[in-house]
């Protein structure tokens, strides 16, 4: 019998998305709203908030994947949680349509206030083969898959005898030289080198890491001098950093790179791994609402984080984080809005919750103002770069600053503790290099066990034995492996 879910009839603050903004807004409002007879409802297809700055370290095996996410159910005990996607909003009639994550029938949910917190999605370009061959780094699932893929390809290459197959498996391409791309290539390279150390059938020199950046420099968040240092640092570790270069084609595992701006071919080679970290854009779900959208696809808000339109403030509508164009009175992007980052998202959420609450009692609201503190990035163990309140750091000091900052910024004491313990254990035991196989087909072993073996076929008529000259020789792969092991033993 189908069970129809019943949701609260209390006046609702509907939070669309449970990332940084959603988690902190709901957390700061849930008790107050409940006390006055209302309810906070958070809708997200995921049952957790993802601490995205940790994705490169999850991919690199330094942080356990579950520790980089925060369970909504555990930390939002007084919030009504719905696992699903908001597919459209009719603010004029104060209703949202929700598609449950289990594929059930979409339903309408009424609300009093709405908080748009659906973040950003990976921004791609129409490059042939990209959708089929590429992977992003925006979700915990992608980070887990990348880690397993890199480790798995090293294993596969170690038993392959065809040099082209080995080269393709051991070539890793990252497109996008922003923070996410640089941290990702650096963490993966560190992990791959540690994995190859344990595998005497693969040489370190066979690993190839290629960073592709369309601009003339990487990491706009740090100074030009620091960015140059990062390029030198990556190159000193054997990584190829290609500036003013763009991905032109990625069909069938082939990578074609072109020089910008003359569009001449820069390089063509094969790679099994293509990681796309070339930027994000506001979640396109905002286009299915009746809120006005600014040129970059975000909802416009004023400094109080209220959604605004042609005729001023739209009552009971709020937004913050990557999905919103929030004015930055301290600078920010060239259009005068905040850079989409976690630093802003977290602080905006806290301000939004206070302002929404103040608006209930017609109390004065405060405008959002935060001067960016800078940026910290980790490039694998004891390596990093940072610019904190104008102070430039690099190497081990920057790496310590990176860990210190993110260790403290990770939401909830419980999660902080788990991540710090991961780092502590890794310091003594090294990176966790255990790869998990068959995650996309976990029933494989059971299906094999539960499927009856086919009945043996009737005994074939006896075939005369082949003469010795026609007998199959030892498999070349095995022969090569034995030979390499002998060499290693010497
Ligand atoms: C790899 C990586 C590294 C980063 N490193 C840093 C860093 O070092 N420092 C820094 O400051 N920032 C960093 N950022 C940026 C930072 O993570 C984002 O700016 C921040 O997460 C934005 O918060 P948000 O709440 O707006 O969006 P998000 O945290 O992305 O949350 C959006 C939520 O909305 C949900 N959602 C999406 N569509 C719907 C829908 N239709 N209905 C309901 N829910 C929906 C999503 O599932 C998600 O949970 C990094 C980002 C990435 C990808």
TrEMBL record:
Domain of life: Bacteria
InterPro entries: FAD/NAD-bd_sf (IPR036188), FAD/NAD-binding_dom (IPR023753), NDH-2 (IPR045024)
Positions of the FAD/NAD(P)-binding domain: 12-348
Pfam family, one: Pyr_redox_2
Biased composition (Low complexity): 451-476
Alphabetical UniProt keywords: FAD, Flavoprotein, NAD, Oxidoreductase
Comp. bias intervals (Basic and acidic residues): 477-490
One annotated GO molecular function: NADH dehydrogenase activity
Chain spans, region Disordered: 451-490
The family this protein is said to belong to: Belongs to the NADH dehydrogenase family.
Name of this protein: NADH dehydrogenase FAD-containing subunit
Taxonomic path: Bacteria, Bacillati, Actinomycetota, Actinomycetes, Micrococcales
């Amino acid at each position: 019998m189908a069970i129809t879910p019943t949701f609260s009839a209390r006046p609702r603050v509907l939070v669309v998305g449970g990332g940084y903004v959603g988690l902190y807004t709901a957390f700061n409002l849930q008790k107050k709203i409940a006390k006055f007879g209302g309810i906070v409802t958070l809708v997200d297809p995921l049952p957790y908030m993802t601490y995205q700055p940790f994705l490169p370290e999850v991919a690199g095996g330094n942080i356990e994947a579950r520790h980089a996410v925060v369970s909504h159910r555990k930390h939002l005990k007084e919030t009504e949680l719905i696992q699903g996607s908001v597919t459209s909003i009719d603010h004029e009639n104060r209703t949202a349509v929700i598609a449950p994550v289990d594929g059930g029938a979409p339903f309408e949910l009424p609300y009093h206030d709405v908080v748009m917190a659906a973040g950003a999605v990976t921004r791609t370009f129409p490059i042939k083969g990209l959708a089929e061959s590429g992977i992003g780094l925006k979700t915990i699932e992608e980070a887990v898959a990348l880690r397993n893929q890199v480790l798995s390809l090293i294993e596969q290459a170690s038993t392959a005898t065809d040099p082209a197959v080995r080269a393709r498996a051991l070539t890793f391409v990252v497109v996008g030289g922003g923070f996410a791309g640089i941290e990702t290539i650096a963490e993966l390279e560190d992990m791959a080198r540690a994995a190859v150390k344990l595998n005497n059938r693969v040489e370190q020199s066979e690993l190839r890491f290629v960073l592709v950046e369309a601009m003339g420099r990487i990491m706009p968040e740090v100074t030009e001098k620091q960015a140059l240092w990062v390029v030198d640092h990556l190159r000193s570790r054997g990584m190829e950093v290609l500036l003013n270069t763009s991905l032109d084609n990625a069909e069938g595992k082939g990578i074609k790179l072109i020089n910008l701006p003359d569009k001449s071919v820069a390089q063509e080679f094969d790679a099994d791994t293509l990681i796309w970290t070339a930027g994000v854009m506001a979640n396109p779900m905002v286009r299915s609402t009746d809120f006005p959208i600014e040129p970059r696809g975000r909802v416009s808000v004023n400094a109080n984080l209220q959604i605004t339109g042609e005729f001023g403030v739209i009552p009971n509508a709020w937004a913050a984080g990557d999905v919103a164009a929030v004015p930055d009175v301290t600078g920010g992007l060239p259009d005068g809005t905040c850079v989409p980052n976690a630093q802003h998202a977290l602080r905006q959420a806290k301000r939004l919750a206070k302002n929404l609450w103040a608006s209930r009692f017609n109390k004065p609201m405060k405008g959002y103002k935060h001067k960016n503190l800078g940026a910290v990035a980790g490039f694998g163990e004891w390596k990093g770069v940072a610019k904190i309140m104008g102070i430039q750091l690099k190497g081990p000091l920057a790496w310590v600053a990176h860990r210190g900052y993110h260790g403290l910024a990770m939401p909830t004491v419980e999660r902080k503790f788990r991540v710090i313990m991961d780092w502590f254990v890794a310091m003594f035991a090294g990176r966790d290099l255990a790869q998990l196989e068959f995650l996309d087909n976990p029933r494989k072993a059971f299906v094999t066990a539960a499927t009856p073996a086919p009945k043996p076929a009737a005994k074939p008529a006896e075939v005369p034995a082949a003469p010795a000259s026609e007998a199959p020789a030892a498999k070349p792969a095995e022969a090569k492996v034995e030979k390499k092991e002998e060499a290693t033993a010497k």
